[in-house]
Fold:
Amino acid sequence: MRINANMSALNTHRQLSANQASTGRSVERLSSGLRINRAGDDAAGLAISEKMRGQIRGLSQASRNAQDGISMIQTAEGALNETHAILQRMRELAVQSATDTNTTDDRHKIQSEVDELAREITRISNTTEFNTQNLLAGGLNNRFHIGSNANQFMDLSVVAMDAQSLGVAGSVSVLSGAFGARNSGITSVTNIGRNLAERHDYNIDVVRRAATGSAITASPSTPAPPALAAAPADLVVTGFNRTSDTAYLLRVAGVNATPGDNHVTSLEFSRDGGATWGTAGVGGTAANIVFTFDGITLNTSDGAGISHAVGNTYSFTATVASATLQLQAGETNIGSAVTVRAGMTSAELGNEVTGQTLTANFNFNDLFVATTGPFGTDNFIISQGQSSAAVTSGGVVSTEAVARAGILVNTQVTANNAITVIDNALTSVSTERSKLGAIQNRLDHTIANLGTSAENLTAAESRIRDVDMAEEMMEFTKNNILSQAAQAMLAQANQLPQGVLQLLR
Structure:
């Protein structure tokens, strides 16, 4: 018998330590609910579990993204529902106006309501927002991230849903102001516009004016004779063989309109028959012209002209899309127009060469002109398809300026045509609403699929990371009993060396 090394006690102590360590791990797992509390518990399992956790959280966020997308779509679709209702009312009014049981006054009242409804369509388009993002103004081109990994997108775009884009903009804007008088006067003007619907590839020549003396006249498509080289380099535009006292003075520096450019241009009358133009370019994307006359703004997609007087200012913003900026200088009190049309070729003035005549052309495929009658009490409007306009007696300029665009229901013919235009607008809104509804349905299915994926992935991650409480409780009970038994046996093992004392008696 040996007493210096109590092997039984040492072995029992080792077993007791192991049992206590196992019991401690079981207590930790039972208290945390996790099988892996540190990398040492399961290094490979920890790495796999963390990767799965990233996917699970990504799927959960993607589901929330999809729900936010549905909220955005519902906001836009709700606004378009009101646009639909307004268009239906406009169509009802057009049908009402299309019957000749209405008087002219009746149709004017119907027209007024149509104009207000068109303005409301534009207001809805301009003010419908989600999280400060405008939804119906035409600039929405969003992506919804609907997956847990990169590049898992769903695209959403909404075209412009304002009255102008739908083709149902208001018909008439009346601008009031002091338009002055034309002292030189005109007694008669006829056939000034030809058939504007058939005016294609028309050229207006621009020549340099002498510093002194009368302005040079030039017929369309015919370059003017050389002018005297002198400053300032004013540009005289004459069309329809006008004389010098009816010509515009045009100051333009490098007007080269390219698709996508936005040009802010102003016109100011400094004297009878005179106009000064200036340009400044900024970026733009949509075809549109916004007119401002002495601080009053007029919107139209077709272009418009108004009567001016000495000292009045007329400015416009023209955004070019697949077209070039077109400037036509006409007689002040007859008609002027600025329009942007698809298919135009150029609007270039070129560069001045000292001592030489500066000649350039405005080329265009179509032209729209609108104005009020500036002479006496007879008003007239020159528009597409109208071949002539006549005015008599000179003198006082009218105090109204009119621009025409969009829906007209003031006659039986225009009201009948308006029905077709409104039907097209209804189709456009229906198409957009259908697209929004289809995307919403996609997102509904996406949310359901994301939920299923997250659920199954969570179950897989739980099997790796989480503890089986029942199994771990069994392990804890076993280790606890073994620890108690080891303690008892250690006490017995410590008593075994005392047997040596019997041998020594």
Notes: The chain has two domains: 51-164+418-455, 172-405. Residues 171-405 have pLDDT under 50 and may be disordered.
